[in-house]
Specification:
Elements: E1 2-3, H1 6-19, H2 24-41, E2 49-53, H3 57-71, E3 76-81, H4 89-98, E4 104-108, E5 122-126, H5 138-148, E6 154-157, E7 179-183, H6 196-199, E8 201-205, E9 221-224, H7 226-232, E10 247-251, H8 258-270, E11 275-280, H9 285-291, E12 296-299, E13 318-321, H10 329-341, E14 346-348, H11 350-357, H12 360-364, E15 371-372, H13 376-383, H14 389-403, E16 406-409, E17 415-417, E18 422-425, H15 437-450, H16 455-474, H17 484-489, H18 491-496
Parallel strand pairs: 2-3, 2-5, 3-4, 5-6, 6-7, 7-8, 9-18, 10-11, 10-13, 11-12, 13-14, 14-15, 15-16
Antiparallel strand pairs: 1-9, 16-17, 17-18
C-alpha cells in the first residue's frame, strides 16, 4: 500500500493512460464501476441515490456512477454545481452519456434549488475531489453545509469535498462523509486524526493503475504492511543461543508504577531479546522476580525511585528507559548519567521524555539514532505546540533531523518519523487506548533493537507487531476490555503471521 500526494496520483493516472495505454474516459469508467460494485456488495443495492457533482473529473466520476445506477434500475437524481464553465472533456462526455437514462438532472445556481430529501436517500458527494486548491466558498460551501445538515448517509468519491489531500484543512467547510471510497492508494489527509470526522469509514478501491509508476517515484510516506514487516524479520538459525539475541537493559519503574516496568520487561523478552536486566527501585524487586522470573533484576539504592546506575552499561545491546520512571530530581540525575556515559542509541519513553523536555542540556545529549516514543502531548513538550496534525508531522521531521533520532509518534496511524521518510503503520485499533500500551511498545522496540536490528528497523517492525498483536487480541476481546497484557500475550501469534 502506498500513500501518495494528489500530484503523484494524477501522475499515476497519466502514466497508466500513456503506458497501458488506456483513454482517460475509460479509466474514469473503471473508477465508477468499482464504486458501483462496492455499493452493491455493501448493502446499498435497491436504495435511492442523489449525486452531487462538480464539473471536474470528480464530477465526471459521479455522472458515470449515476448512469450505471440508473441503468441497473435505481432511482437517481443528479445535482450539478453550476460554475459557468463547460467542465472537463471527460465530464462533458459522461454528461452526454447520462442524458438517455432516467436520471433527474438539475444544475444548481442556488442552494434553494435542492428539493426536500427523504432521510432514506443515499447522498453521494462527487463535487470536487483532490483538485481542491483553496477552501470552499460561495455556492460550493453552501451546498456542502446543506448536505451535512440533512442527516442522510453520505458517501464521498475519492476524497470528501473541501478536504485538502496533502495539507491541513482545519477550519475549512468539508463534507462529513460516513464512507469515503478512494482509488488505488491512501492520501496523506487520510492518516491524520484531524480529518476523521470527515472521512468516516475509508474504503480503497483498485482501478488498475499500472504498478510500474511506483518504481519511478521516491514517496515521502511509506505504509507499513505485512510485506515490509516480513522483509525485516530475521529468521533464527537452529544452532543459535541466547547470546546471539542481545542483552537488553530496561531502566523503569517507581513506587506505584512498577507495573509499567513489568509490562515493558515482559514485552522485551516476548520480542526475542536473549537476556534482560531490569533496573528498578527496591520496592519493585519482589514484583519483578515473581512476575517475570526470566529477567535479571538490578535494584537501585533508593527504595521508591531510580537514582543511579552502578554497573557497567557497555555490555548491553539495547537500553530502554522511561516506563513508570517518575519525575524526581534524583531520577533526572540518573538520566543525565546515562546520556553522559553511553554513545549507544537509546529507546526513550514516557517520563524520560518528560524529563528531557524540561532540560535543553539533556535534549542535546541524546545519542544519535536513538528512538523516542512520544504520544502527541509528550512530543509537544519536547518540540513545541502545533496548530494541526500536518504541522506536527513537519515539526517531527525537523526534530528528527536536528537531533539525529527516530521518532515513533503514537496514534491511530502511528508514524515513524526520520529526517528523510515518514512510515505510517497499518496495524492497531482503538482497544489500545489504555494505560500500559505504550510501555509494551517500548519493550517490543527495545527487544528488537537488542537483537541487532537498526533503529529504523526496530521501530518499523516493533510498531507493526505491537499493533498486529492488538488486532489479534481484539478477536478474543473488545475495544473496551482490551488490556496491555493482552497485547503481550498475542505477540507470539503476531510474529507467526510473518513466518
Amino acid at each position: 500500500m502506498y500513500i501518495l500526494t494528489a500530484d503523484q496520483v494524477r501522475a499515476w493516472d497519466e502514466f497508466t493512460i500513456l503506458h497501458e495505454p488506456v483513454a482517460s474516459i475509460e479509466l474514469m469508467e473503471r473508477a465508477a464501476k468499482a464504486c458501483v460494485t462496492w455499493l452493491f456488495d455493501s448493502g446499498f443495492k435497491g436504495k435511492e441515490f442523489i449525486i452531487f457533482c462538480g464539473k471536474g473529473n470528480n464530477g465526471g466520476d459521479g455522472l458515470a456512477i449515476a448512469r450505471m445506477l440508473s441503468q441497473s434500475g435505481h432511482v437517481v437524481q443528479v445535482y450539478i454545481l453550476e460554475s459557468g464553465s463547460p467542465g472537463t472533456s471527460d465530464f462533458q462526455t459522461n454528461l452526454q452519456r447520462l442524458h438517455p437514462t432516467k436520471c433527474i438532472l438539475t444544475f444548481l445556481t442556488t442552494v434553494s434549488a435542492i428539493r426536500d430529501i427523504s432521510k432514506e436517500v443515499i447522498l453521494i458527494d462527487a463535487l470536487l475531489g483532490t483538485g481542491l486548491n483553496r477552501p470552499l466558498e460561495g455556492l460550493a460551501e453552501e451546498i456542502v453545509k446543506n448536505i451535512n445538515g440533512r442527516g442522510n448517509t453520505i458517501l464521498s468519491i475519492d476524497i470528501p469535498s473541501g478536504l485538502f489531500a496533502d495539507k491541513t484543512s482545519v477550519s475549512n467547510t468539508i463534507i462529513k462523509a460516513d464512507i469515503t471510497l478512494t482509488f488505488q492508494c491512501l492520501k496523506p489527509a487520510f492518516i491524520v486524526a484531524e480529518n476523521d470526522l470527515h472521512i468516516g469509514r475509508l474504503q480503497i478501491l483498485k482501478i488498475g493503475l499500472l504498478d510500474g509508476y511506483l518504481q519511478t517515484i521516491n514517496p515521502s510516506y511509506i505504509f507499513i504492511g505485512a510485506a515490509l514487516a516480513k522483509q525485516l524479520l530475521r529468521p533464527r538459525k537452529k544452532f543459535a543461543h541466547k547470546g546471539n539475541f542481545g542483552h537488553a537493559l530496561l531502566v523503569a519503574g517507581s513506587y506505584g508504577k512498577i507495573g509499567a516496568a513489568l509490562l515493558a520487561a515482559r514485552a522485551i523478552l516476548y520480542a526475542g531479546a536473549g537476556l534482560l536486566t531490569v533496573h528498578i527501585p527496591g520496592c519493585g524487586y519482589p514484583i519483578l522476580q515473581t512476575g517475570l522470573p526470566e529477567a535479571m533484576v538490578d535494584t537501585d539504592k533508593n527504595e521508591f525511585f531510580n537514582t543511579a546506575l552502578e554497573k557497567d552499561i557497555s555490555k548491553f545491546g539495547a537500553i530502554g528507559i522511561g516506563p513508570g520512571l517518575g519525575m524526581q530530581t534524583e531520577t533526572k540525575g540518573l538520566l543525565k548519567q546515562l546520556l553522559r556515559d553511553t554513545s549507544h542509541s537509546l529507546i526513550i519513553d514516557a517520563d524520560a521524555l518528560n524529563l528531557i523536555s524540561n532540560d535543553s542540556e539533556l535534549l542535546s545529549a541524546i545519542p544519535p539514532e536513538s528512538i523516542l516514543t512520544p504520544h502527541f502531548k509528550e512530543f509537544e513538550r519536547l518540540a513545541g505546540a502545533v496548530s494541526n496534525d500536518f504541522e506536527r508531522l513537519e515539526l517531527a521531521k525537523k526534530f528528527a533531523l536536528r537531533h539525529q533520532c527516530i521518532i515513533i509518534l503514537k496514534g491511530h496511524f502511528t508514524c515513524i518519523v526520520t529526517a528523510e521518510k515518514l512510515y505510517v503503520n497499518s496495524t492497531g485499533n482503538a482497544g489500545m487506548a489504555k494505560g500500559g500500551s505504550g510501555d509494551v511498545l517500548t519493550g517490543v522496540v527495545t527487544g528488537l533493537f537488542a537483537q541487532g536490528y537498526t533503529s529504523v528497523e526496530a521501530a518499523i517492525l516493533g510498531v507493526f507487531l505491537h499493533g498486529k498483536a492488538a488486532d489479534l487480541a481484539l478477536t478474543e476481546s473488545s475495544y473496551e476490555s482490551m488490556m496491555a497484557t493482552d497485547i503481550i500475550d498475542h505477540l507470539p501469534a503476531a510474529f507467526r503471521t510473518l513466518y
